[in-house]
Amino acid sequence: MKKIITLFALFTVLFVSAQTQFEQGMGKAFGLWKEGKNTEASQLFERIAAAEKTSWLPNYYVALVNTTASFSEKDKTKVSLMLTKAQDVLDVEMIKDQSNSELYVLQALIYTAYVVMDPMTNGMKYSSKVMEAYAKAKAIDPNNPRAVFGEADYQLGGAKWTGVDTKPLCAQVNKAIELFGTFKPETQFSPKWGLERALETQKTCK
Amino acid sequence: MKTKITFILLLMSAFTFAQNIVSGKVVDQKGKPVAGANIYIDGTYDGTSSSETGDFSFETTEVGNKTLVVSFLMFETFSKEIDVANYKDQIVKLKENVNTLDAVVITAGNLESGDKARVSVLKPLDIVTTAGSAGNIIAALQTLPGTQSVGEDGRLFVRGGEASETQTFVDGVRVAQPYGATTNNLPTRGRFSPFLFSGISFSTGGYSAEYGEALSSVLLLNTQDEADHNKTDISLMTVGLGLGNTQKWNKSSLSVNAAYINLAPYQAVIPQNVDWNSPYQSLSGETVYRYHFVNGTFKLYAAFDSERFDLNQKNVNFVDPVRTDMNNNNFYLNASYKGTIGTGWQLTSGVSYGYNNSKIKYNLSDLDSRENAAQLKLKLRKNVSDHFKLSFGTDYFITKYNEDFNDNVSINAVTGYDSNIFAAYTEGDVLFSKNLALKVGLRFSNNSLLDESRLAPRASIAYKVSKGGQFSFAYGDFSQTPVVDYIKYSKFHQFESERASHYILNYQYTKPGLTFRAEAYYKDYRNLVQYDTKDIQYNSVFNNNGSGYAKGLDLFWRDSNLYKNLEYWISYSYIDSERQYKNFPTMATPNFIANHNLSVVTKYFITDWKSQIGFTNTFATGRPYNDPNQTQFMSGKTKSYNSLSFNWAYLLTTQKIIYFSVSNILGTQNVFGYDYAKTPDAAGVYNRQAVVPTADRFFFVGFFWTISQNKNENQLKNL
Questions:
Q1: ipTM score here?
Q2: Which of A203, B153, B310, B376 could form a disulfide with B278 if both were Cys (CB 3.0 to 4.6 A apart)?
Q3: Pairing of strands B596-606, B566-580
Q4: Which chain B residues are Cβ-neighbours of A130 within 8 angstroms?
Q5: Band of pLDDT at residue B77, cut at 50, 70 and 90
Q6: What pLDDT was estimated at residue A9?
Q7: B621-654 per-residue burial string, b: 16 or more CB within 10 A, e: under 16
Q8: Number of C-alpha atoms within 13 angstroms, CB side, residue B631?
Q9: Contact state of B567 with A120 under an 8 Å Cβ cutoff
Q10: Is B667's pLDDT higher than 80?
Q11: CA pair distance B180, B484, nearest whole angstrom
């Protein structure tokens, strides 16, 4: 009996400390990211990913940090290194789980970054891939606000010169904002970004 | 009891939170600090990023021997087992990763296009959006340095070489008949639709030991690995119509294209320099099937085309025009598999089969030719390490050719040949560092028809001198079976392969939006076929004693930074070349060589008009011709050549586009050369006739429409 209790106590302690370690680590990484320390944030997420092979979140954030940071990076060599890194870690998670809507949204975002980097070269090639990735994300979870918004936003971005009708796209943006309102992230660290940008886009729609 | 548990817990936590400090400095191979590297104990959260000075220090709760990992984008990941208690102020030296994007690449002789190309001189869209190219891959390549514009032929002439000296490969396997049917001074075009290819590598010399049977150049076309998505393409043009469909499934995809071309409307509108009995017509189809296995991709490519035309051409040797009636059928099949096996092995294998049948009527005579050509190929590549790659492979070429000439009066001659060539090669790629790369190869070939075996060495080296600049040098020995015009008489003469050596020095400078290349080369030709009659005949006396040289300088400048939405490139080639071959009495510059060639290509996108407009200007100095009225051989020179082409693409909606193009808008009266009469007239003068284009201008209007679920699918790529 004594032994059992001891074991149980030990187990609990280990379990609890492991939990908090993950939370602490993730929390610290988010802190770094918020401060604009993208490299440090990405590296901490990487370390967490290396230690926590069962969670898809650390790698997801490694990819997300690098992809979003690439939008403001001017050096094309650095941009392609960042995007390669993002794609590599996303591939790791994609192999484990092919029915995660968020991973497809992120995939679309990486392709979008390639288009932004060099529209003349990558525009034609990646546009259809962006749309395909959003379509998959929506097929898995039609109520994922990031998928609904991302798809509309990408097309609005090109509407200036493709002359596509923006009305139905703006309707999608409005729908996404509603979905953001009802969206409940599964865990504390699950993806929940996107509402601010959607509100900005909504303004340009009017 | 309680106390015991508490004690254990306390012990546990004390144990867990025992702190060790790990510290040191990260440097590169030159000892310079590396900032921003990720340093951590593998499997834990413990770690940090190196500072601006490369220093790092972090606390860890781990004890004993653990693995320290140091990783950073451009370097090879470092990992080492350390005792965490005793790892302080250590220097970690990172090795540069030689496979990063900015590593040196051998560029001598090689012009690349496509996604996988490190430095792309042509972008995939350029093939279709270059004014004057009209979707012809070959015409777009003719705006690159090292090529000659030979308007009456249309094929690729590279660095003083004949068109036959360039071989075309699809997915690594040779295409025996890459060009459409042609005859007497009518230009041809490439058979391949540009839409199915994702990468083009055009080598103007010094290429890899993987490729043989080409004296001057190889053109490598790679089909897309993956289809975009399900779609249907419709095109309506002033010269015909086209239909395409792509279906994509989970692991496979299928694309099918068909086109019918009829030049009648164009020939009715634009004045023609020849008299057409029936216009140029072609019916063609292409299909690509791809299947993705876990470790590789299987591709099947098949193309069929049937062409015909019938025209009367003035000929200086006859009072009446000569009628040419051409009927050509061509089929090409290519199956390839590319995949990985084991660790670090890559396997490429392929089979191709080409069938070409031409039926030509010259006035009353019939010329019927059939060619069956096949190739088998196997290639293995092993990544021994990041610094060394080894590849080896083997090829087998089979060609059967038959020709039947019947003048329907007295002569009925049947000629032909069977050729089998076995070849094997090996090649090593050494990356000494990010700045120095070497490639050395050797190719062995045995030709049963010529009864000869050859060893051809190839070598190239590249050295990076600055962030964007690098030099490369390439050397190679090349051999090729003489062209069909000769070897169809193999019964009467034992031919040998023609041979060439290339020496190429290249400098390339790149930065975002800008590419500059300068290349100097020297080519030495030997073993060229000579004959002693006016025309090539079965009873000509042949020998393999001809020789020649070509030397020159090629410059290329491509820039997209000058002005927003403007892209342009400039190609300039200078060449000095002479040969003594065919029935040349002395060394002379052949008639397809112009000493100076200049192409300027511009593309400008006007957002407000949803349009892209482009101009291409091609200029070449005069080409030599032989005037039998003169004592000196090949002493004549034509006036210079110039053609300015224009195109305009207007995006109606994302899925509909209107495309308009005109070549030679200025209507320059170009002369490619002169044909002289075989016999002098009564006054003892050889009369002549200028070789001119079939029409001075070509114009094209087309409407292209893509139907797909994806509304963002862009018609621009179908320009």
A1: 0.76
A2: B310
A3: antiparallel
A4: 712
A5: confident
A6: 58
A7: bbbbbbbeeeeeebebbbeebebbbbbbbebeeb
A8: 0
A9: yes
A10: yes
A11: 17
